[in-house]
Amino acid sequence: MKNNQVGLLNKTIIFVMAAALAVLCSGCGFFSAKNPEPAVYISQAVIELEVGETVQLAAASSDNAEVSWVSGSDAIVTVNQNGLITGNGEGETIVTAATSTALASCTVKVSEKTLTGPTDPENPDVPQNPEIFTLMLDNIQLAVGERITLKAVSSLGDEISWLSSDGKVASVTNGVVTAVSKGTAEITAKTSKVSAKCTVIVTEKQTAPDPDADKEGYRLVWRDEFNGASLDTAKWGYQTGIKDTYGSSVGPDYWGNDELQYYTEDAVSVENGSLKITATRQQQGDRPYTSGRILTRDKASFTYGYFEARMKTPTGSGMWPAFWMLPQPSSPANSENEYGGWPANGEIDIMEAKGRLENKVDTTLHFGKASNAHDYVTKETTLSSNTDEWHVYAVDWTADAISWFVDGQKVLTVTKDRWWSQDTSNQGKPQPFDKPFYILFNLAVGGRYDSYNQPDGSFTSAAMYVDYVRVYEAV
């Protein structure tokens, strides 16, 4: 989810590791093969050449989008659309490789020095360009049965061959790597002159629970597996703009939290078997970011049950993903229910996260009444891995208690004697959590939840994914 530049590794042979169908993470670690974010990877971050010298750059886009080239100063260096740069005058400028959604840059320094470098023995006076070899990923992690396509490019057009160190663990054919069995293997891509390796760790197949299998004491009553090509609008509605509008009522600006995003339908998609909500640095109205928010209001609401979703959410400052529930209004003409408005009518936050705290999530229950009487119970949970890996979040809601689960482990229980609504004499009774609630997914940016932290200057886009959401009711 990050747009990274890869440095110059060698004066003559350069290996650049990037993702074709996987998400690239800075530094060490392994990569998941599902749901990549668009990125561009360039073969050199800094290069020096002389006036009159030409050097071939290479670039690859993770989503196979067409890459265009542009020079910051044609007086210093020009670049054609194949990435061939030519030094024109002494100085320093930037050459950029870009798609419609991402970019990467190389700093080019041009000098008047006399060129010295490797030559062709048969033509000693003709400088030779080095071979620039681009291989996708130096480390990947796959589950048995998963596949990923690695893309390798030679700037000299040499034929590329592929080899696995252990075909019983991971096989490779024309760059397509298939995870066969648990273990570790190395995939090698090579030309007649150079080679590069990618380590593949294969884990046991991870299967989601059978969506048709009922949980003990519950039966499955509603679900979305996100297996289509677009959002199922029979189940979900979009919320757009900077505030909620429902019937004749209008919510507070910036969703009541001073959030920085403008919600659009375009930020929501369904692909590769998952819901995807993307936050993008993009001006919309007076907001510097766009993102998405969907809900089941007026389409599906439930009183009590077991609610579960398998998700991965972005890390990084300013990211605020959430899976939560709000009370279904009593009618389309009324944004409240019998207990009034928020927080008197309650809120169940099944999962929300502060992106900068990469392996932590919050589970929270809101209730009480407005102003100083707003009350809540919350619990921060540390995950076994960062939130940008798959995790299962759930809540078990009954008339007597609400319990939260992370990856199958109970992390918090709140009993009915703790919550209340408006009239404190009713403390200990089920209100307000005895009315129908609907489901929401959204990815907010900034706002008061994480003390107004914002994305850093390099942020371009990030996404949260939902593999499935399922609702079970007690039998």
For the structure shown, list the relevant keywords:
single chain; 475 residues; mainly beta; seven-stranded antiparallel beta sheet; 40 strands; 0% helix; 47% strand; disordered N terminus
Helix fraction by DSSP (H/I, runs of at least 4): under 10%
Q: Count up the helices.
A: 0
Range of strand content: over 45%
Biggest beta-sheet profile: 10 strands, mixed
* Number of separate strands: 40
| Rg, Å, rounded | 27 Å
The average pLDDT value, as a whole number, equals: 83
Structural class comes to mainly beta
Shape: globular
Distance between the terminal alpha carbons, to the nearest Å?
42 Å
Low-confidence stretches: 1-36, 115-120
Explain the layout of strands and helices.
Layout lengths: L12 E6 L21 E3 L3 E5 L3 E3 L2 E3 L6 E4 L5 E3 L4 E4 L3 E8 L4 E9 L7 E2 L2 E5 L3 E6 L2 E5 L3 E3 L2 E3 L6 E4 L5 E4 L2 E4 L3 E8 L4 E9 L14 E7 L12 E2 L6 E2 L2 E2 L10 E3 L4 E4 L2 E11 L2 E5 L1 E3 L9 E8 L6 E9 L19 E6 L7 E9 L5 E9 L8 E7 L3 E6 L2 E7 L21 E9 L15 E14 L1
Parallel strand pairs: 1-13, 3-10, 14-21, 26-29
Antiparallel strand pairs: 2-5, 4-8, 6-9, 7-8, 9-10, 11-12, 13-16, 15-19, 17-20, 18-19, 20-21, 22-40, 23-30, 24-25, 27-28, 28-29, 28-40, 30-39, 31-36, 31-40, 32-33, 32-39, 33-34, 34-35, 36-37, 37-38
